[in-house]
Write a structure and sequence with these properties.
With 150 residues, the chain is of the alpha+beta class. It has one domain (2-149). It is 25% helix and 26% strand. Strands 4-3-7 form a three-stranded antiparallel sheet. Strands 1-2 form a two-stranded antiparallel ribbon. It has a two-stranded antiparallel sheet with strand order 5-6. It is globular, with a radius of gyration of 16 Å. The two termini are 16 Å apart.
Length: 150
Amino acid sequence: MYKVTKQLKIIALTAWSITIITSCGVRKNTPSGPRSHCVSEHDTVIDRIVYTKSDILPVYGTNSSDFLLFFSKEFNYPQQQLDFQGKVILEFIIDDIGNIYKSWIYNKEEKDHSLVDKEALRVLKLSSRWKPAKCNERYVWFRMKIPITF
């Protein structure tokens, strides 16, 4: 029963505030094309161009709430942190065919991950293929952040 209550709390607290937060990079390219809202930057870790704004954002399932439903269904609170309250910001890169290429917790080194952080990353990696971002009618690699409030 506690697990269900906590899952509903995740949805209730996060659903109204889900925002895809894009990264701010230093080396950004200007938007491409006259009507495009696309912004890209060179990601030095993976050594490729990654978009932070696009004409069509990546989506899991059919809409933005599908990921939250999936997340709340699959997330299992670690027994040592059942009363955890706070926010975990998942940051990840989706490639041009919709796979999660790389994922991490925003502003946290791996050695500092809590059990809740590790579980959130585990669930993110379980998510099946996303619909990739599109810029100027072509699929692109995209970096996104999703805040999950507990």
